[in-house]
Amino acid sequence: MPHVDQDTTQQQPLRVSILRHGGHLVASVHTAFGLEPAAMTDRLLRALECPWVDALGHPTGRMLLRREPLRFDIEAVLASAAAKGVAIEINSQIYRLDVSDTIARRALELGARLIVSSDAHDITEFDNLEWGVRTARRAWATKAAVLTTQPLKALRASLRRNQRRQPGKRAR
């Protein structure tokens, strides 16, 4: 899935025409990790406002033994994602494992769906999916709650961008 960074100056990082015609879009924080909690919360909530964002990637931004998690109101972000139909990523990279099982479980309780991603930058990293699957299982995620377990046609239909075209068809 392509990623788009939410810029801290509130400028749109890509033209809407590019976002509209993509297959699916993951918004992730890759810069300005040290924002105050209120500013980071606002940044994430603004990213979720973009109608073309289908998932929020590695929401806490943590990198195990390298970087602490971002400071923000996780409850507000998860609730907004659930309300807008934005999936929450479980990133399977062994140095991320982001989100945790407890955050994934809370996302599910609020009505969000999950994606399990390898975030592979090399073919050998696909084996890391096991860690994301284990996290989803510890969160008590069902197959139906994890978009990336669905056949491709069902996955595409479940993406936020396609829910607008099918009112009332949001599967849980």
The CATH architecture name reads: Alpha-Beta Barrel
Our count of helices gives 7
- Termini separation comes to 21 Å
According to DSSP, the number of beta strands is: 5
The main sheet comes to: 5 strands, parallel
* CATH class category label: Alpha Beta
Q: What is the general shape?
A: globular
Order of helices and strands: EHEHEHEHEHHH
How many domains make up the coordinates?
A: 1
Tell me what you see in this structure.
The protein contains seven helices and five strands. The model is unreliable at 1-6 and 165-172 (pLDDT under 50). It is 34% helix and 10% strand. It has a five-stranded parallel sheet. It has a single domain (3-163), classed as Alpha-Beta Barrel (TIM Barrel). The chain has helices at residues 16-20, 37-49, 74-84, 101-109, 129-138, 152-158, 160-163, and strands at residues 3-5, 26-28, 55-56, 87-91, 114-117. With 172 residues, the protein is α/β, with parallel strands linked by helices. The two termini are 21 Å apart.
Secondary structure blueprint with pairings:
Elements: E1 3-5, H1 16-20, E2 26-28, H2 37-49, E3 55-56, H3 74-84, E4 87-91, H4 101-109, E5 114-117, H5 129-138, H6 152-158, H7 160-163
Parallel strand pairs: 1-2, 2-3, 3-4, 4-5
Helix pairs in contact: 2-3, 3-4, 4-5
